[in-house]
Amino acid sequence: MPDAIAPASVRPSIFDARGRWRAWWDARRQPRESQALTQRNIYIVPSRAGLAFCLTLLLLLVVSINYQLSLGFALTFLLAGSAAASMQMTHGSLRGLTLHLKPLVPAFDGEAAVLEVVVTNPGKARLGVGFGMDLGVRPIPLAYAEIAAQGQTSVHLSWLAPGRGLHALPVLRAESRYPFGLFRAWTIWRPAGQQWVYPRPETPTPPWPQADAAQGDDRHAARTGSGTEFEGVRAYRRGDTLRQVVWKKAARTGEMISRETAGAVQREMHFQWSQAQGLDTEARLSRLAAWVTAADAAGHAWSLRLPGTELAPDNGSAHRHAALQALARW
After folding, report:
1. Where does residue 222 rank: exposed (0-12), middle (13-18), buried (19+ CB within 10 A)?
2. Predicted model pTM
3. Where is this region: Disordered (predicted)?
4. Which end of the chain, N or C, is less packed with Cβ atoms under 10 Å?
């Protein structure tokens, strides 16, 4: 699965006429869930090597005319026919492909956000197809792939978002110079969707604020973290010790199961904006993100309270994403 990393897009200056024109043109493209490559959205021009080849053909033609060289005419027209066939093959290496994105995975601020592009090929094998992000920066880093006949290929493209929050996806470019590099065919696709970028958790994770044991009966409230009495099994959680893992079941089924002991107290954590006093806004968000991530990994129930936003005590992946999104929007 090819991979390419691209920087975040750069806003063109008022003196960059080409960049402003590109920004205007990109804004006119409607976001699409998928893109089928046809003659209407594939563009092709001679490459630098192709222009040099054309000048060479012109020189051969002039020399052949000047000296009346029959073999010179034959060579010139043979090379010209090869170039015309190359143009058709270059355009055909993109024509018929379909591009679509897999569900987006949120990223943390400062980390590369990954887009997985699935390329569907209904025809013969395609070679030397490059994929990258058209961010107005030259050169565009490309990830090259070979798409099997009547098959699919996944291409991973990474980019750095300008900061936390919800961001529109960058424009994607598919390009081919196959087979001789004389022509460059490309297409532009603005995928529909938005990328979440969460605040980067503080490292190492700071000590948790004071937490209360979850409300329950006296037997549960009396448990301590040092208990070892066996009570059952549960799904493996990150942070479980190797001693808790039921290795026989893991070896037999491949499923990670952990032993539950009487010392595993269900705690209810309460995270508030005021608990990170003395820090600037970004540092506060980073600390709260670290607490949320650590509490979720430990399996505790937790709540989050921000000015204007409050999440009730809960746990699980959906609760964690809701909290991190609230922090990203702050």
Report:
1. exposed
2. 0.71
3. 198-230
4. N
